[in-house]
Amino acid sequence: MVREEYWQKVRSAKEGQKLSPEDILFLLSTAEREEEEVLFGAADQVRKDCVGDEVHLRGIVEFSNCCAQNCLYCGLRRDNHALVRYRMSLVEIVAAAKNARPQGLGTVVLQSGEDPWFTRERVIDLIRAIKEDTNLAITLSVGERPYADYLAWKKAGADRYLLKHETHSPTLFRGLRPGRELGERLQALRWLRELGYEVGSGNIVGLPGQTDEDLARDIQLFIQYDFDMIGIGPFIVHPQTPLAWAANGQLNRTLKVLAITRIITRDTNLPATTAAGVLDQNGRRRALSAGANVVMPDITPPNYRQHYQIYPGKARLTLDCQEFRNWGRAQEKEAGIEWSCELEGAETVCMDIRNAFLELAGVRIR
Ligand code: SAM
Ligand code: SF4
């Protein structure tokens, strides 16, 4: 049953009317399946109207799983001694990034733990080497660093920076990221914007102790900071962390946060996160039907990818490139889907988006 008030609130938000913090909480806190479907449908329509049917692909290279931080939720945390650690060499990272082009990818995201081995100068070398050989847009996602690093990397040619705020609850943040403060993370996000980066942020949905009020505050932060990209993913339990006892986040709750964010922010890039795909094999497909418009294929070499275990099940989302390419060609012929990826020469493409596109007729890939 869909309450009249719920219908009306979703309809007026879809038409562009501002939502108060109470409205956001009201939309978020429904547990009624039919109301959720109304919300997802409205977000899908806003996505279509504001950013169109193209799904943007951003290749991600996970170049080091070494981390000086000890976030309670993350498998890469410093105290996880069971993890096999790796650091790709500069040559390997540049080669992996260059492999993005033949896969039809125009953007590469360079992600790692907070790894001090990658000094300001080494990251500058990396950016320059990639920019010299390709016209790829470079997104950095290497955690919190001093202002001088962000400045130097922007000057060297980095285009975007991805730094999730994780949770807008200072108490939760402090408890889950020992030694770190929410205020510092928000300061870093403001610096990045001032320096001219396109800034991506985002949250984790379903952290132990997190309430709907906390999630509503996350959405308010998204409005306030006007991010260029917002990653909204469920919490996935990692057995080798202090949160091994907790429960996974729920997909529907994650999709509600995503859908409200789409309806409010209109044209922000919203990824269908890998974590959603790990939680449920249809997770990314469902996210693409509830407001998402970006997928981030993992282009880390497979020998390293298996060790980037933020949470279990990540490396499983892999599809052989030949299979992907054959599928793409078949789609082009059969469904009239525009296929602009040039996949010749690619080694692997990781994705369950194959299923997503099979179901989303009319979606174009760029
Ligand atoms: N070290 C950088 C940082 O923390 O910003 C970038 C790498 S970190 C592995 C990337 C993201 O993984 C984090 O922003 C966090 O949201 C997400 N993450 C870590 N552990 C997670 C978990 N157990 N479930 C879901 N997302 C998780
Ligand atoms: Fe390190 Fe980032 Fe994981 Fe925290 S979330 S432990 S900073 S890799």
Structural summary, described in words:
This protein is of the alpha/beta class and about 375 residues long. It has one domain: Alpha-Beta Barrel (TIM Barrel). Helix content is about 45%, strand content about 15%. The chain contains 15 helices and 11 strands. Strand 2, helix 4 and strand 3 form a beta-alpha-beta unit. The radius of gyration is 20 Å and the shape is globular. It starts with a helix and ends with a strand. S-adenosylmethionine binds next to loops.
Number of domains: 1
Number of strands: 11
**Main sheet: strands, sense, barrel:** 6 strands, parallel
* CATH architecture verdict: Alpha-Beta Barrel
Helix content: 40-55%
Number of discrete helical segments: 15
The CATH C-level name is Alpha Beta
Helix-strand sequence:
HHHEEHEHEHEHHEHEHHHEHEHEHE
Helix/strand-derived category reads: alpha/beta
The ligands bound in this entry are: S-adenosylmethionine, iron/sulfur cluster
Shape: globular
| Strand residue content | 5-15%
Give the C-alpha Rg.
20 Å
- From the N-terminal CA to the C-terminal CA, the straight-line distance is 39 Å
Strand order of the largest sheet: 2-3-4-5-6-7
Averaged pLDDT: 88
Name the poorly predicted regions: 319-323, 337-366
CATH homology superfamily: Aldolase class I
**Within the CATH hierarchy, at the fold level, what is the topology?**
TIM Barrel
